[in-house]
Each structure stands twice: as structure tokens, then as C-alpha cells.
Predict the 3D structure of the following.
Amino acid sequence: MTSLAKAKFVRLPTPDASSGAQSLSVQFNPSELNFTKTAQVAEIGIPGLDTPLLQYVRGQAETLTLELFFDSTEDGTGSSAKPVTEKTDKFYALIKAERATHAPPVLLFLWGGTSFPGKRRDHGFRCVVTSVRQQFTLFAPDGKPLRAKLTVELKEYKPLTLHLAELGFMSADHTKAAVVRENDTITAIAYREYTDDRRWRDIAAVNRVVDPLALEPGRILRIPRGAGR
């Protein structure tokens, strides 16, 4: 029986890359993987109705939670044993911002030949680490940690280019997309795209904007035809 290849984290050098030069392999494969996918839904209250109408706003990033186990007792449990932190610190660092990007690294989580839900490229889960909880379960007589369990939460990462590609604009009407900036307003976006702030209603209608005064930064809006290039 062929043993399952160890799970590993591959650092992606750019958001669109499928592999990188640096990777970290876990010591023991996780026994289970827990995926969570949610959607943001707004409640629209209508006077006289027993329950509000529900309006889909946007999808939330998928999360993956897993437990990683590490052990450094192969050289015994005495003073000669190496601390398990030599192994866990490399994984703990994945949540820290890097100097070059000012953000944690983008990763591809791979687990043997497993094909994850959604047919992700290279059978992996493109993500960033959003939470790491470290628990030490065995110590040497001198207090040196020898075994550890890391509970790691990963959040799905998609670069803007991939988001735009997945929107699937198939028509020839030159529909565009715009990303909401910090402190942006829908009228400002309309002026930027059409040089006519009165066109905000067109943008609001095609994107089913519930509250034009409460646009979330990072949201991708479809811009109907007629906008400048």
C-alpha cells in the first residue's frame, strides 16, 4: 500500500503563480480537513410582512481549518533532544507579514493527490494563513517543548485577475468591472467611468446595490456598456 504524500505549504512568488521555490512539509498528515463557505445576505424589511426579504450581497472567502502535529522525540526526551519549536516556528511565521509585501505570504496548500472542492488549480487550496494556535503537549525534564499541535485556519485567496475572469462576461457589450476603493461612492465611480455621476443608477441596478451609501471597499462592480476605456 502506497503511503500518502505529506501535506505541504508552497509559497507562491506571485498571486498568479502555481508553484514556488519555497515549501514546508508537515511532519504528520492531518486526520481531517474542515471547509467552511458562507454568503453575506442582507435583510430587507417590508412593512406588513412577517419576515424580511433576503437579498444576496456577496460570497465570503472559503476557510479551511486543520490540525498539524509535530514531534522531536526521535533523539530521545533528554537534554540532547531538539526543541519542537525548530519545526513549528516555520509554520507559525506564515501568519506574519513579510518585508517585501507587507502582508503574509500567499500559499498553495497541497495534501497528497487530493483534489479539493471547486477544482482548484494543481489540486491545491490557494490561501493565506489567518489564525495559528500552538499547543505544546510534551516537555523534556529541562522544560524544552518536544511535541506540539498547531491549529491553523486558512482563508481562500484569489487575486483580482482571477475574480474578473470568473465573472464570465461573455457578451460583446464591453461590460467592464471596477473595484470599490476606500471611501468610494457610487456617484464617484459613475463619474470615473462615464464622466457623468448621474449614471450611478445604472451601476446600482446591474449590481443590485442595496444601499448606495454603504459600498464595501474591495467589492467588484459591473460597469454596463458605455463607460470609457
About this structure: The chain has a mean pLDDT of 80. The first helix runs from residue 85 to 92.
